[in-house]
Amino acid sequence: MNLNKAENTPPVWPDRFTALKKEITAGHEEELTKSWRALVLALKERTKEFIETGPEIVPQVEYAELESLPAEKVAEVKRKGCVVIRNVVPDEEVLKWKADLRKIIEDNPQLEGLPVDDKQFFYLYWSKPQVEARAHANILAATAWLNQLYTGEGADKRVLTAPLTYADRFRIRKPGPKWAFHPPHVDGGSIERWEDPGFRQIYRDILSGEWAKHDAFDIDGRIVAQSDLYDRPNQASVFRTFQGWLAMSDTGPGEGTLRVYPDIKLGNSYIILRPFFSPIDPAGDLFDPDNWKFDISAPEFPGIILERDGKFHGPRISDATHPNMRTGEAMVSVPLVHPGDMVFWHSDLVHSVEEEHHGNGDSSVMYIPAVPATKQNVSYLAKQRDAFIKGHTPPDFGRDGDESWVLGVGRPEHITTAAARKAMGLEGFEELQLISVV
Ligand SMILES: [Fe+2]
Protein backbone atom coordinates (compact mmCIF):
# COMPACT_ATOMS: atom_id res chain seq x y z
CA MET A 1 0.00 0.00 0.00
CA ASN A 2 1.28 3.44 -0.87
CA LEU A 3 0.97 5.72 2.14
CA ASN A 4 2.22 8.71 0.16
CA LYS A 5 -0.59 8.80 -2.34
CA ALA A 6 -1.08 12.56 -2.06
CA GLU A 7 2.57 13.11 -2.89
CA ASN A 8 2.27 11.00 -6.01
CA THR A 9 -0.74 12.78 -7.48
CA PRO A 10 0.38 15.41 -9.98
CA PRO A 11 -0.27 18.97 -8.80
CA VAL A 12 -3.40 20.67 -10.08
CA TRP A 13 -2.86 23.51 -12.57
CA PRO A 14 -4.26 26.81 -11.26
CA ASP A 15 -7.26 28.31 -13.05
CA ARG A 16 -5.24 31.31 -14.10
CA PHE A 17 -3.87 29.20 -16.95
CA THR A 18 -7.33 28.67 -18.41
CA ALA A 19 -7.74 32.44 -18.26
CA LEU A 20 -4.34 32.85 -19.94
CA LYS A 21 -5.39 30.59 -22.81
CA LYS A 22 -8.52 32.66 -23.24
CA GLU A 23 -6.59 35.92 -23.17
CA ILE A 24 -4.06 34.72 -25.75
CA THR A 25 -6.60 33.40 -28.24
CA ALA A 26 -9.46 35.91 -27.84
CA GLY A 27 -10.61 37.18 -31.22
CA HIS A 28 -8.38 34.76 -33.16
CA GLU A 29 -10.22 31.49 -32.64
CA GLU A 30 -11.19 31.10 -36.26
CA GLU A 31 -7.81 31.99 -37.81
CA LEU A 32 -6.06 29.78 -35.28
CA THR A 33 -8.25 26.81 -36.10
CA LYS A 34 -7.67 27.29 -39.81
CA SER A 35 -3.92 27.60 -39.35
CA TRP A 36 -3.84 24.55 -37.04
CA ARG A 37 -5.44 22.45 -39.76
CA ALA A 38 -2.75 23.51 -42.25
CA LEU A 39 -0.07 22.83 -39.65
CA VAL A 40 -1.23 19.26 -39.02
CA LEU A 41 -0.99 18.56 -42.75
CA ALA A 42 2.41 20.24 -43.08
CA LEU A 43 3.75 18.15 -40.19
CA LYS A 44 2.54 14.99 -41.88
CA GLU A 45 4.67 15.78 -44.94
CA ARG A 46 7.74 17.06 -43.15
CA THR A 47 8.03 14.24 -40.60
CA LYS A 48 7.89 11.75 -43.46
CA GLU A 49 10.80 13.59 -45.06
CA PHE A 50 12.87 13.54 -41.83
CA ILE A 51 12.35 9.80 -41.46
CA GLU A 52 13.19 9.08 -45.11
CA THR A 53 16.24 11.37 -45.30
CA GLY A 54 17.82 10.76 -41.89
CA PRO A 55 21.05 12.47 -40.76
CA GLU A 56 21.79 13.94 -44.20
CA ILE A 57 18.97 16.41 -43.68
CA VAL A 58 21.18 18.36 -41.23
CA PRO A 59 23.07 21.08 -43.16
CA GLN A 60 26.85 20.70 -43.21
CA VAL A 61 29.26 23.53 -44.00
CA GLU A 62 33.01 24.09 -43.83
CA TYR A 63 34.30 26.59 -41.29
CA ALA A 64 36.56 28.15 -43.94
CA GLU A 65 33.54 28.83 -46.16
CA LEU A 66 31.28 30.46 -43.57
CA GLU A 67 31.75 33.98 -44.88
CA SER A 68 31.16 32.98 -48.52
CA LEU A 69 28.22 30.59 -48.16
CA PRO A 70 25.56 30.90 -50.85
CA ALA A 71 22.35 32.55 -49.67
CA GLU A 72 20.41 29.30 -50.19
CA LYS A 73 22.69 27.47 -47.77
CA VAL A 74 22.29 30.17 -45.13
CA ALA A 75 18.51 30.01 -45.64
CA GLU A 76 18.63 26.23 -45.20
CA VAL A 77 20.54 26.55 -41.92
CA LYS A 78 17.92 29.03 -40.69
CA ARG A 79 15.00 26.90 -41.83
CA LYS A 80 16.31 23.75 -40.22
CA GLY A 81 17.67 25.53 -37.13
CA CYS A 82 20.77 23.35 -36.95
CA VAL A 83 24.14 22.96 -38.63
CA VAL A 84 27.35 20.94 -38.56
CA ILE A 85 30.34 23.24 -39.06
CA ARG A 86 33.31 21.16 -40.21
CA ASN A 87 36.94 21.75 -39.24
CA VAL A 88 36.50 24.69 -36.91
CA VAL A 89 39.61 23.67 -34.98
CA PRO A 90 42.47 21.48 -36.32
CA ASP A 91 42.26 17.84 -35.16
CA GLU A 92 45.61 17.91 -33.33
CA GLU A 93 44.58 20.82 -31.12
CA VAL A 94 41.31 19.17 -30.16
CA LEU A 95 42.88 15.76 -29.51
CA LYS A 96 45.46 17.45 -27.28
CA TRP A 97 42.61 19.06 -25.31
CA LYS A 98 40.94 15.68 -24.92
CA ALA A 99 44.18 14.06 -23.76
CA ASP A 100 44.64 16.91 -21.26
CA LEU A 101 41.07 16.44 -20.02
CA ARG A 102 41.68 12.71 -19.52
CA LYS A 103 44.79 13.54 -17.50
CA ILE A 104 42.82 16.02 -15.38
CA ILE A 105 40.17 13.35 -14.71
CA GLU A 106 42.91 10.93 -13.69
CA ASP A 107 44.77 13.44 -11.52
CA ASN A 108 41.59 14.60 -9.75
CA PRO A 109 39.57 11.46 -8.93
CA GLN A 110 37.29 13.41 -6.59
CA LEU A 111 35.73 15.41 -9.47
CA GLU A 112 31.95 15.10 -9.61
CA GLY A 113 30.16 13.62 -12.60
CA LEU A 114 27.62 11.18 -13.98
CA PRO A 115 27.04 8.26 -13.84
CA VAL A 116 28.31 8.43 -10.26
CA ASP A 117 29.91 4.97 -10.37
CA ASP A 118 31.62 5.50 -13.77
CA LYS A 119 31.90 9.21 -14.47
CA GLN A 120 31.70 10.34 -18.09
CA PHE A 121 29.83 13.68 -17.89
CA PHE A 122 31.79 16.04 -15.69
CA TYR A 123 30.71 18.98 -13.53
CA LEU A 124 33.86 20.83 -14.43
CA TYR A 125 33.86 24.28 -16.02
CA TRP A 126 37.28 25.88 -15.77
CA SER A 127 39.87 23.28 -16.76
CA LYS A 128 42.63 24.69 -18.96
CA PRO A 129 41.50 22.85 -22.12
CA GLN A 130 37.94 24.20 -21.72
CA VAL A 131 39.22 27.74 -21.12
CA GLU A 132 41.46 27.47 -24.19
CA ALA A 133 38.69 26.09 -26.39
CA ARG A 134 36.33 28.95 -25.48
CA ALA A 135 39.12 31.40 -26.28
CA HIS A 136 39.92 29.86 -29.67
CA ALA A 137 39.66 32.47 -32.44
CA ASN A 138 37.80 30.14 -34.83
CA ILE A 139 35.25 29.10 -32.22
CA LEU A 140 34.57 32.74 -31.38
CA ALA A 141 34.25 33.52 -35.10
CA ALA A 142 31.88 30.59 -35.70
CA THR A 143 29.62 31.67 -32.83
CA ALA A 144 29.65 35.30 -34.03
CA TRP A 145 28.58 34.05 -37.46
CA LEU A 146 25.69 32.13 -35.89
CA ASN A 147 24.65 35.15 -33.80
CA GLN A 148 24.40 37.17 -37.00
CA LEU A 149 21.80 34.83 -38.45
CA TYR A 150 19.50 36.75 -36.12
CA THR A 151 18.26 40.16 -37.19
CA GLY A 152 16.57 43.04 -35.47
CA GLU A 153 15.79 46.67 -35.79
CA GLY A 154 16.07 47.85 -32.21
CA ALA A 155 19.28 46.14 -31.18
CA ASP A 156 22.76 47.53 -31.85
CA LYS A 157 24.33 45.33 -34.52
CA ARG A 158 27.37 44.89 -32.32
CA VAL A 159 25.19 42.82 -29.95
CA LEU A 160 25.52 40.10 -32.60
CA THR A 161 29.09 40.69 -33.74
CA ALA A 162 30.68 40.59 -30.27
CA PRO A 163 30.52 36.95 -29.16
CA LEU A 164 30.55 36.14 -25.44
CA THR A 165 31.71 32.94 -23.79
CA TYR A 166 29.50 30.72 -21.65
CA ALA A 167 31.21 28.26 -19.34
CA ASP A 168 29.63 24.81 -19.51
CA ARG A 169 30.79 21.20 -19.09
CA PHE A 170 32.09 18.33 -21.23
CA ARG A 171 31.57 14.62 -21.66
CA ILE A 172 33.84 11.76 -22.58
CA ARG A 173 31.19 9.10 -23.05
CA LYS A 174 32.08 5.42 -23.25
CA PRO A 175 30.30 2.91 -25.49
CA GLY A 176 27.50 0.92 -23.93
CA PRO A 177 25.71 2.25 -20.88
CA LYS A 178 22.25 3.64 -21.32
CA TRP A 179 21.86 7.41 -20.88
CA ALA A 180 18.32 8.63 -20.46
CA PHE A 181 19.14 12.15 -19.25
CA HIS A 182 17.96 14.02 -22.33
CA PRO A 183 14.71 12.91 -24.02
CA PRO A 184 13.31 15.33 -26.67
CA HIS A 185 12.93 18.81 -25.16
CA VAL A 186 13.44 22.53 -25.67
CA ASP A 187 15.60 24.66 -23.37
CA GLY A 188 15.56 28.34 -22.52
CA GLY A 189 12.15 28.93 -20.98
CA SER A 190 9.12 26.83 -20.09
CA ILE A 191 5.59 28.14 -19.44
CA GLU A 192 7.14 31.59 -19.97
CA ARG A 193 6.73 31.06 -23.73
CA TRP A 194 3.03 31.76 -23.18
CA GLU A 195 2.93 33.46 -19.80
CA ASP A 196 5.50 36.22 -20.32
CA PRO A 197 4.07 38.85 -22.71
CA GLY A 198 7.58 39.67 -23.98
CA PHE A 199 8.41 36.03 -24.73
CA ARG A 200 5.01 35.56 -26.35
CA GLN A 201 5.80 38.42 -28.73
CA ILE A 202 8.39 36.18 -30.42
CA TYR A 203 5.50 33.93 -31.46
CA ARG A 204 3.06 36.70 -32.37
CA ASP A 205 2.54 35.50 -35.95
CA ILE A 206 1.87 31.96 -34.78
CA LEU A 207 -0.59 33.25 -32.19
CA SER A 208 -2.49 35.36 -34.69
CA GLY A 209 -3.03 32.41 -37.03
CA GLU A 210 -0.14 33.10 -39.43
CA TRP A 211 2.52 30.59 -38.46
CA ALA A 212 4.02 30.58 -41.97
CA LYS A 213 5.24 34.14 -41.27
CA HIS A 214 6.97 33.21 -37.99
CA ASP A 215 10.57 34.45 -37.73
CA ALA A 216 12.52 32.49 -35.11
CA PHE A 217 15.54 34.77 -35.67
CA ASP A 218 14.21 38.06 -34.33
CA ILE A 219 16.79 39.29 -31.81
CA ASP A 220 14.60 42.20 -30.61
CA GLY A 221 12.01 39.77 -29.28
CA ARG A 222 14.63 37.65 -27.54
CA ILE A 223 16.09 40.67 -25.76
CA VAL A 224 12.83 41.45 -23.98
CA ALA A 225 11.74 37.85 -23.35
CA GLN A 226 11.83 36.67 -19.74
CA SER A 227 12.72 33.01 -19.83
CA ASP A 228 12.58 32.39 -16.09
CA LEU A 229 9.64 33.80 -14.13
CA TYR A 230 9.93 31.12 -11.43
CA ASP A 231 13.61 31.08 -10.48
CA ARG A 232 14.19 27.51 -11.66
CA PRO A 233 17.43 25.85 -10.60
CA ASN A 234 19.91 24.72 -13.31
CA GLN A 235 18.40 26.99 -15.90
CA ALA A 236 20.61 28.90 -18.31
CA SER A 237 20.02 32.55 -17.48
CA VAL A 238 21.70 33.67 -20.68
CA PHE A 239 20.12 33.75 -24.11
CA ARG A 240 22.01 31.44 -26.49
CA THR A 241 21.22 32.05 -30.16
CA PHE A 242 22.40 28.48 -30.70
CA GLN A 243 23.37 25.78 -28.26
CA GLY A 244 26.34 23.83 -29.42
CA TRP A 245 29.24 21.50 -28.91
CA LEU A 246 32.71 20.87 -30.18
CA ALA A 247 33.35 17.25 -31.17
CA MET A 248 36.44 15.69 -29.60
CA SER A 249 35.96 12.27 -31.23
CA ASP A 250 34.73 10.52 -34.38
CA THR A 251 31.08 10.08 -33.52
CA GLY A 252 28.33 8.93 -35.84
CA PRO A 253 24.61 8.22 -35.55
CA GLY A 254 24.00 5.51 -32.97
CA GLU A 255 27.06 6.48 -30.98
CA GLY A 256 25.44 8.60 -28.31
CA THR A 257 25.15 11.72 -30.45
CA LEU A 258 22.64 14.57 -30.66
CA ARG A 259 19.24 14.23 -32.29
CA VAL A 260 17.25 17.16 -33.63
CA TYR A 261 13.84 17.98 -35.07
CA PRO A 262 15.13 19.88 -38.10
CA ASP A 263 12.42 22.44 -38.81
CA ILE A 264 12.36 25.41 -36.48
CA LYS A 265 9.19 27.04 -37.82
CA LEU A 266 7.07 23.90 -37.73
CA GLY A 267 8.40 22.87 -34.32
CA ASN A 268 7.74 26.29 -32.79
CA SER A 269 4.33 26.62 -34.40
CA TYR A 270 3.16 23.22 -33.20
CA ILE A 271 4.52 23.57 -29.66
CA ILE A 272 3.03 27.07 -29.27
CA LEU A 273 -0.42 26.14 -30.65
CA ARG A 274 -0.75 22.68 -29.16
CA PRO A 275 -2.28 23.88 -25.81
CA PHE A 276 -5.28 25.34 -27.64
CA PHE A 277 -6.39 22.20 -29.45
CA SER A 278 -7.46 18.71 -28.47
CA PRO A 279 -8.18 15.57 -30.45
CA ILE A 280 -11.83 14.63 -30.82
CA ASP A 281 -10.98 10.92 -30.92
CA PRO A 282 -7.50 10.43 -29.38
CA ALA A 283 -7.38 6.89 -30.79
CA GLY A 284 -8.35 8.06 -34.29
CA ASP A 285 -6.23 9.51 -37.12
CA LEU A 286 -4.42 12.44 -35.54
CA PHE A 287 -3.21 13.65 -38.94
CA ASP A 288 -6.81 14.19 -40.00
CA PRO A 289 -7.46 17.89 -39.31
CA ASP A 290 -11.16 17.08 -38.78
CA ASN A 291 -10.15 15.04 -35.75
CA TRP A 292 -9.00 18.19 -33.84
CA LYS A 293 -10.99 20.94 -32.21
CA PHE A 294 -10.20 24.34 -30.72
CA ASP A 295 -10.42 23.70 -26.96
CA ILE A 296 -9.23 25.94 -24.15
CA SER A 297 -11.28 24.39 -21.37
CA ALA A 298 -8.35 22.82 -19.47
CA PRO A 299 -5.55 24.77 -17.75
CA GLU A 300 -2.75 22.33 -18.69
CA PHE A 301 -0.10 23.04 -21.32
CA PRO A 302 0.95 19.72 -22.94
CA GLY A 303 4.62 18.95 -22.39
CA ILE A 304 5.01 21.47 -19.58
CA ILE A 305 5.51 19.80 -16.24
CA LEU A 306 4.22 21.50 -13.12
CA GLU A 307 6.21 20.44 -10.06
CA ARG A 308 4.92 20.30 -6.49
CA ASP A 309 6.95 23.41 -5.65
CA GLY A 310 4.96 25.39 -8.24
CA LYS A 311 7.83 25.57 -10.75
CA PHE A 312 7.54 24.53 -14.37
CA HIS A 313 9.76 22.38 -16.57
CA GLY A 314 9.72 21.54 -20.24
CA PRO A 315 8.59 21.75 -22.96
CA ARG A 316 9.24 18.02 -23.15
CA ILE A 317 8.09 16.60 -26.43
CA SER A 318 6.72 13.07 -26.73
CA ASP A 319 4.29 11.09 -28.82
CA ALA A 320 1.85 11.30 -25.91
CA THR A 321 1.80 15.10 -25.72
CA HIS A 322 2.80 16.12 -29.28
CA PRO A 323 1.73 13.23 -31.53
CA ASN A 324 2.01 15.13 -34.83
CA MET A 325 5.75 15.68 -34.40
CA ARG A 326 6.25 11.88 -34.20
CA THR A 327 9.41 12.40 -32.15
CA GLY A 328 9.52 8.66 -31.50
CA GLU A 329 10.64 8.18 -35.12
CA ALA A 330 11.29 11.61 -36.63
CA MET A 331 14.14 12.89 -34.45
CA VAL A 332 17.19 12.88 -36.72
CA SER A 333 20.70 12.04 -35.49
CA VAL A 334 23.39 14.48 -36.60
CA PRO A 335 25.77 13.02 -39.22
CA LEU A 336 29.20 11.59 -38.43
CA VAL A 337 31.46 14.23 -36.89
CA HIS A 338 35.22 14.31 -36.42
CA PRO A 339 37.38 16.04 -33.82
CA GLY A 340 37.26 19.79 -34.44
CA ASP A 341 33.79 19.81 -36.03
CA MET A 342 31.06 21.70 -34.21
CA VAL A 343 27.32 21.09 -34.03
CA PHE A 344 24.89 23.91 -33.28
CA TRP A 345 21.12 24.03 -32.81
CA HIS A 346 18.77 27.02 -32.44
CA SER A 347 17.64 27.88 -28.92
CA ASP A 348 14.06 26.80 -29.74
CA LEU A 349 14.93 23.57 -31.55
CA VAL A 350 13.63 20.28 -30.14
CA HIS A 351 16.63 18.06 -29.39
CA SER A 352 17.63 14.95 -27.48
CA VAL A 353 20.65 12.78 -26.87
CA GLU A 354 20.76 9.17 -28.07
CA GLU A 355 20.30 6.84 -25.13
CA GLU A 356 22.54 4.15 -26.57
CA HIS A 357 26.14 4.36 -27.67
CA HIS A 358 26.83 1.37 -29.94
CA GLY A 359 30.22 2.55 -31.20
CA ASN A 360 33.68 1.36 -30.25
CA GLY A 361 35.34 4.59 -29.24
CA ASP A 362 34.48 7.47 -26.93
CA SER A 363 31.77 9.97 -27.87
CA SER A 364 33.19 13.20 -26.53
CA VAL A 365 32.20 16.85 -26.68
CA MET A 366 32.75 20.19 -25.02
CA TYR A 367 29.53 22.20 -24.73
CA ILE A 368 30.09 25.63 -26.30
CA PRO A 369 27.09 27.76 -27.31
CA ALA A 370 26.76 30.98 -29.34
CA VAL A 371 26.07 33.90 -26.99
CA PRO A 372 25.29 37.44 -28.22
CA ALA A 373 26.05 40.57 -26.17
CA THR A 374 22.48 41.27 -24.99
CA LYS A 375 21.96 43.14 -21.74
CA GLN A 376 21.02 40.02 -19.79
CA ASN A 377 24.03 38.14 -21.22
CA VAL A 378 26.52 40.92 -20.49
CA SER A 379 25.36 41.12 -16.89
CA TYR A 380 25.78 37.34 -16.58
CA LEU A 381 29.24 37.63 -18.14
CA ALA A 382 30.37 39.88 -15.28
CA LYS A 383 29.28 37.30 -12.69
CA GLN A 384 30.80 34.46 -14.70
CA ARG A 385 34.11 36.36 -15.01
CA ASP A 386 34.24 36.94 -11.24
CA ALA A 387 33.61 33.23 -10.66
CA PHE A 388 36.39 32.39 -13.13
CA ILE A 389 38.89 34.63 -11.37
CA LYS A 390 38.11 32.86 -8.07
CA GLY A 391 37.97 29.41 -9.68
CA HIS A 392 34.34 29.01 -8.60
CA THR A 393 31.48 27.22 -10.38
CA PRO A 394 29.73 29.59 -12.86
CA PRO A 395 26.59 31.24 -11.41
CA ASP A 396 24.10 29.27 -13.60
CA PHE A 397 25.38 26.01 -12.12
CA GLY A 398 24.98 27.07 -8.50
CA ARG A 399 26.53 24.11 -6.78
CA ASP A 400 28.78 26.32 -4.65
CA GLY A 401 31.66 24.51 -6.29
CA ASP A 402 35.28 25.49 -6.03
CA GLU A 403 37.64 24.37 -8.81
CA SER A 404 40.63 26.43 -7.77
CA TRP A 405 42.19 23.29 -6.25
CA VAL A 406 41.85 21.21 -9.44
CA LEU A 407 45.17 20.12 -10.95
CA GLY A 408 45.03 21.53 -14.47
CA VAL A 409 42.62 24.41 -13.78
CA GLY A 410 42.60 27.28 -16.28
CA ARG A 411 43.39 30.82 -15.17
CA PRO A 412 42.66 34.27 -16.68
CA GLU A 413 46.32 34.59 -17.70
CA HIS A 414 45.84 31.59 -20.02
CA ILE A 415 43.59 33.78 -22.20
CA THR A 416 45.97 35.83 -24.25
CA THR A 417 44.19 37.37 -27.23
CA ALA A 418 42.25 40.61 -26.93
CA ALA A 419 39.16 39.13 -28.63
CA ALA A 420 39.01 36.19 -26.22
CA ARG A 421 39.66 38.38 -23.16
CA LYS A 422 36.77 40.57 -24.26
CA ALA A 423 34.51 37.56 -24.83
CA MET A 424 35.32 36.48 -21.28
CA GLY A 425 34.66 39.94 -19.79
CA LEU A 426 38.30 40.43 -18.81
CA GLU A 427 38.81 43.43 -21.12
CA GLY A 428 36.66 46.07 -22.82
CA PHE A 429 33.73 45.30 -20.54
CA GLU A 430 32.44 48.90 -20.47
CA GLU A 431 32.05 48.86 -24.23
CA LEU A 432 30.03 45.62 -24.03
CA GLN A 433 27.78 47.24 -21.43
CA LEU A 434 27.21 50.21 -23.73
CA ILE A 435 26.27 48.23 -26.84
CA SER A 436 24.09 45.83 -24.91
CA VAL A 437 21.58 48.48 -23.84
CA VAL A 438 21.05 50.10 -27.25
FE1 LIG B 1 18.94 20.57 -23.96
Automatic annotation (TrEMBL):
Transmembrane segments: none annotated. SUPFAM superfamilies: Clavaminate synthase-like (SSF51197). It holds the Pfam family Gig2-like. Gene3D superfamilies: B-lactam Antibiotic, Isopenicillin N Synthase, Chain (2.60.120.330). It comes from the Eukaryota. This is DUF1479-domain-containing protein.
